[in-house]
Amino acid sequence: MKRELALTGLTLTFCALACAQDYSGDRVTVPASSHPRTIKAELSNGSITVRTHATNDVIVETGGGNGREHPERTVDGLRRLNLPNRGLDVEADENTITVKLVRDASNQSLTLTVPVATSLQLTSHNGSINVDGVQGEADLTSHNGPINATNMSGAVLADTRNGSIKVSFNHVDSGKPIAFTSYNGTIDVALPADFKANLKLRSSQGDVYTDFEVKLTPVAGTITEPNSSGHGYRVRTDQTITGTINGGGADASFTTYNGKILIRKK
């Protein structure tokens, strides 16, 4: 494994290959690569924003965040300094860049400026995820917060427990599935008018709206499965609606338990 950069607090460590890196405050620049990269990032409390630029560098920046919380304001007559939470760890291994915060403070934000051709694996446990203009595969998870992805090209998997999902595509990779799941929130997806898809739709407490011509398939009926005791069975009705748009194609799944599903032509 080639560890190009490790940054903890104010300590900067270079790899054996003298890669040119720069660090100014909470900012790290990973030099360009000749191949598309995958960015992996996880944040406990705060938002993740991804934007694109014309170069092949990857820029990682942090912002916000509350200072370290200590109950003592003074000790032995000495006044406590309110130090900011800082510490960014960026590791580049071949074509994968992993981003971690050493001290994950509340209201911390993470901004990634990436080449257009980039794939993403992003998780925010308490905060929003915002992505614009990326061409690649995007796997986006927010446990408590909305997900917004605009001008996407490729494939998107978006999952949030509490929050809305809003995604717009310029192009969809016909060879990859797309899926959107929100337990509490509306799913609003705009797709190219000529997009061909096999749809799976499920909204337990909401309706589905679209301006596509959808050809619905017959309801699957009932599902028989073992019960919780393991000594019997239960029969339930499958609430999933299936259908096709433009004759069928890539798998496209939309699931919300408390919210509407909106599927738009772009």
Describe what you observe in this structure.
With 266 residues, the protein is mainly β. It has a single domain (5-65, 83-213, 250-265), classed as Pectate Lyase C-like (3 Solenoid). It is built from no helices and 27 strands. It has strands at residues 5-8, 11-14, 22-23, 27-30, 37-45, 48-53, 58-64, 74-75, 78-79, 88-93, 96-101, 108-115, 118-126, 129-132, 135-144, 147-162, 165-172, 178-184, 187-191, 197-203, 208-210, 214-216, 222-226, 233-237, 241-245, 250-258, 261-265. The strands form four sheets. It has a 21-stranded mixed beta sheet that branches. β10 (88-93) and β11 form a beta hairpin. The chain is globular and about 75 Å long. 31% of the residues are buried.
Map the helices and strands:
Layout: E1 5-8, E2 11-14, E3 22-23, E4 27-30, E5 37-45, E6 48-53, E7 58-64, E8 74-75, E9 78-79, E10 88-93, E11 96-101, E12 108-115, E13 118-126, E14 129-132, E15 135-144, E16 147-162, E17 165-172, E18 178-184, E19 187-191, E20 197-203, E21 208-210, E22 214-216, E23 222-226, E24 233-237, E25 241-245, E26 250-258, E27 261-265
Parallel strand pairs: 5-11, 5-13, 6-12, 6-14, 13-15, 14-16, 15-16, 16-17, 16-18, 17-19, 18-26, 19-27, 20-26, 21-27
Antiparallel strand pairs: 1-2, 3-4, 4-7, 7-12, 8-9, 10-11, 20-25, 22-25, 23-24
